[in-house]
Amino acid sequence: MSLLPSKVRVVEVGPRDGLQNQSIQVPTATKLAWIGRLARAGLREIEVTSFVRPDRIPQLADAVEVAAALPEIEGTLYSALVPNQRGLKSARSAGIDRIALFTAASETFCQKNINASIAESIERFRVLLHSVPDEKLWVRAYVSTCFGCPYEGVISPDAVVAVCRDLLALGIDELAISDTIGVATPADIDRVLDALSTLPTLDVPKQVALHLHDTRGTALVNVYAALERGISIFDAAAGGLGGCPYAPGASGNLATEDLIYLLDGLGIETGVDLAALTESSLWFERELGTPLPGRVLGAARGS
Ligand code: MG
Questions:
Q1: Which SS3 state, helix, strand or coil, does residue 240 take?
Q2: Which residues surround ligand 1, an ion (CB under 5 A)?
Q3: What residues have CB less than 8 Å from 3, skipping those under 6 apart?
Q4: Residues 173, 139: contact at Cβ < 8 Å?
Q5: pLDDT tens for the chain, residues 1 to 303
Q6: How much distance in Å is there from the Cα of 74 to the middle of ligand 1?
Q7: Ligand 1 centre and the CA of 218: distance in Å?
Q8: Staple 244 to which of 9, 36, 37, 250, CB 3.0 to 4.6 Å?
Q9: Spatial contact of 123 and 83, defined as CB atoms under 8 Å apart
Q10: How far is ligand 1, taken at its centre, from the CA of residue 134, in Å?
Q11: Residue ranges covered by each domain of the chain
Q12: Is the pTM value of this prediction over 0.85?
């Protein structure tokens, strides 16, 4: 067995990526209580909302209220997705200093999702980051559809490398390499990581996060394949909440409980208390009034 990382950073994306794909409107107070539970379960990095136009994603229309009332829990880092300058301004005034940007490796997906070509998205980011030159922002960029696109099918690893190279040139701190429609297998993980390893400006183990979806049941085997390659940052959504509104047929994010169960079993440190996290997700699905798809959660519920 190859040497696996001894520690993994888990980025909880449920409150943003998960909720944005739920038709249910969750009250602000419930979101805040959930975020508090996630943080107390040991999740140290939580993406809490997106500062999008409320008419585009009404589920996250309370971004300002959520960001302004985040529970202060020692060591917890909160971030938010920011689509444009107005969003960045709102995020900054609400005290958010870790932001996430969103682009894609597929031209068609990028166009349909953010109404820009990949090159235009990079230019927007350049202008956006230039607007706050003196502030220390931590910036992550989502590169969606790195393994396949609902419109274009297979995506070449070279396309992933090209967009990542441009993002790194902007000084982006972290790349979230995303399997938006959950098509990747370990062979694809290897191919994309091989391609990314050719980028001299990229420190793969420090800067590459994997954002996996379990649409075809391959998320955890892909995590394992990535661990073997030294990847130690993984996104997940509590309970497996989410999907993607712009990617037909894409089901939920990798469930955080499933990820932690695997990592616990491998003896890899995450700081997350699986029992507390599971309890939190059981509480949250009762609040939502609908069961969440995570496997560990299902086992805990008894169904
Ligand atoms: Mg996702």
A1: helix
A2: 17, 253
A3: none
A4: yes
A5: 568 999 999 999 999 999 988 888 999 999 999 999 999 999 999 999 999 988 888 999 999 999 999 999 999 999 999 999 999 999 999 999 999 999 999 999 999 999 999 999 999 999 999 998 778 899 999 999 999 999 999 999 999 999 999 999 999 999 999 999 999 999 999 999 999 999 999 999 999 999 999 999 999 999 999 999 999 999 999 999 986 555 555 568 999 999 999 999 999 999 999 999 999 999 999 999 888 999 999 999 986
A6: 26
A7: 14
A8: 250
A9: no
A10: 31
A11: 9-301
A12: yes
